Amino acid sequence: MNPNRDPQRDRRRQDRAAADAVPAAAARAEGPLPAETVPLILEREPDADYALIDSGGGRKLERYGPYRIVRPEGQAIWRPALGPRDWEKVDAVFTGDTDEEGIGRWRFPGRPLGETWPMRHDGLDYLGRFTSFRHVGVFPEQASHWRHMEGLIAGAGRPVRVLNLFGYTGLASLVAARAGAEVTHVDASKKAIGWARENQERAGLGDRPIRWIVEDAMKFAEREERRGSRYDIVLFDPPAYGRGPKGEVWQLFQDLPRLTELCRAIMTDRPLAAVLTAYSIRASFFAVHALMRDAFAGMGGRVESGELVIREEAAGRALSTSLFARWVAR
Questions:
Q1: 182 to each of 143, 146, 211, 264, 271, how far by Cα in Å?
Q2: What pLDDT digit, counting tens, does each position of 295-323 carry?
Q3: pLDDT in tens, 189-217
Q4: Which fold has domain 7-44+138-328?
Q5: Where along the chain do its domains lie?
């Protein structure tokens, strides 16, 4: 995800884009639709690396390794299970704009922490960062997708090429590379790519084949199609609204259908999976589910769609974070 976005502006643009969008002229894919599994709820459980301790009142209390953090969370419309003392005993609190990905700043109730700080996921070391858009450099709920991808790579019995579009700080790319894949990581933000390179070195994966590319995702996919470059697994995690490095404009409701078609077009003749994740959009998961089934018509396999959720420690509630749809060959 690109963190540099104004969500209220994004939502207004989404609504206008959805109203004004003109159907693409390209013919839809032929053949029977893939089998389907809906709804599929993928959960992130608490562990030593990460836990959602409590949530409610529009906030969430999280633990990243040894650090306890409070951030706004619009989905948490219930009441917190823990008392004020637990919520006040924290290392960092995001303040300012309480809208999703709004601009603000961090407050440190105790010892001030640096901009970057060490984090860990399943044995991979990487750097967290306190950004002005409330993000910390990782989306823990996506661990379900990463485990699934690792299993596909390990079970393929052959070299696997992975394309990670809108790759952000690179944790998915590092997981794929550690599993033995050749990875191409694309993001429009030069800063995010620099951060991802740091994470590669910190994880001890400097010798793994990862290409880091600063480019607009749509342009890159179009060029790969023309070149005949092909991938076994494609990950794409687009924002609702964004800009490429040369000012290219991304509008999810207008551009996602074309990008999804391109993701199918650049897959090998023995593809493994395509995984789409969508945050902060006004849509049902059935919308991205139907899009993926339509784009992968005639490919066989199965489209699994639903929501990514994080299971809370305090009261066992599930906090939904995003929609997803993934096509799998088998």
A1: 19, 15, 8, 19, 14
A2: 999 999 999 999 999 999 999 999 999 99
A3: 999 999 999 999 999 999 999 999 999 99
A4: Rossmann fold (3.40.50)
A5: 7-44+138-328, 50-129
